[in-house]
Amino acid sequence: MRAYRVTSPGRSELVDCPLPTLGSGEVLLRVQAVGLCHSDVFHRQAPPVLRQTLPVTLGHEVVGVVEKAAADVTDWRPGTSAAVYVLVGCGRCSACARGEDNLCRTGYRGIGTHLDGGLADYMAVPAGNLVAADGIDPVLAAPMTDAGMTAYHAVASALGLPRSWDVGLVIGIGGLGHLAVQILAAAKADARLIAVDVDPARLELARRLGATDTVLAGHDTAARVTELVGGREVDAVLDFVGTDGTIELAADLTNRGSAIVVAGLGGGSVPFEAQLATRVSPEVTLRRVSAGSRNDLRHVLDLARAGRLRAETVPYPLEKVDEALAALEAGTVLGRAVITIA
């Protein structure tokens, strides 16, 4: 079969390899679609911090059809459509027992990072990591398994944190941000929802998806937003970029009782200072989220199935993974790049 594998740090290619051998509790999935993420660009560099064992097949936003199951798997039958939950926790702690592998304190392994992922014709998956994906176009379902799940988890986290919820702001209308706009617009239909991005096309997409206001990012973004809302009156900021600049922007726009939820992994930070005059106002809640739970994934798939959440997608065949990753790295993908596998 074909598989797109990281063979050494910085080197990845489409290769021929044997069909996966199933272990106890595993299912063989015939892959139909795989969403691409900025983290895939990072993973193929195989930096030491990830502690990857190479070679490894990339691809963590996976949807496919069950081909066969190990003898001890009884709840997944051949022909069933399934989405893959990306995280594999220790399986022993209370968080894993709740299906919240993202909270596993032992640490989780990632499918497509530490375990072979879905950029292949077939993949072996722990049966417990499958979630029903019937009734959804695989190309639309694939981005839900990480981008949708993480956006949902970020929004759900933000909903309960501020003292009031009149103004929300989303920074970064990319693969995750454009889904968060939809989820937030549905959850807080009466709130003002502001989208911030460097790309006018992404801001136009945000408008179509439910944003009430858009601001093109620049040197005066904070001033323009405060003028728009009449001061530091943003109740919640969801940052899907996570650079110094975006986290500082969130700090400059929020006030007492507000919340900042950071989902982006741009390497940014803001000082946490125990003194009177600080950039982050007192009584502001700052939270960094990571992926989501199995229930988060089920919820976003239900939303997609009902037609209430839809990913903007750009499809590529498996033979053009390198082209898709280059477009993703260049920032020219509107929404989510999705690899289709025939």
From TrEMBL:
Q: Which InterPro entries match?
A: ADH-like_C, ADH-like_N, ADH_Zn_CS, ER, GroES-like_sf, NAD(P)-bd_dom_sf, Zn_alcohol_dh
Residue ranges of every copy of the Enoyl reductase (ER) domain listed in the record: 7-339
Does the record's keyword annotation contain Ribosomal protein? no
Q: Does the keyword section mention Transport?
A: no
- Check the record and name the PROSITE patterns matching this protein: ADH_ZINC
One Pfam assignment: ADH_N
Q: Which domain of life is it from?
A: Bacteria
* Requisite cofactors: Zn(2+)
- Keywords, in A-Z order: Metal-binding, Oxidoreductase, Zinc
State one molecular function term (GO).
oxidoreductase activity
Q: Which family does it belong to?
A: Belongs to the zinc-containing alcohol dehydrogenase family.
Q: What protein name is recorded for this chain? A: Enoyl reductase (ER) domain-containing protein
**Species for this entry:** Frankia canadensis
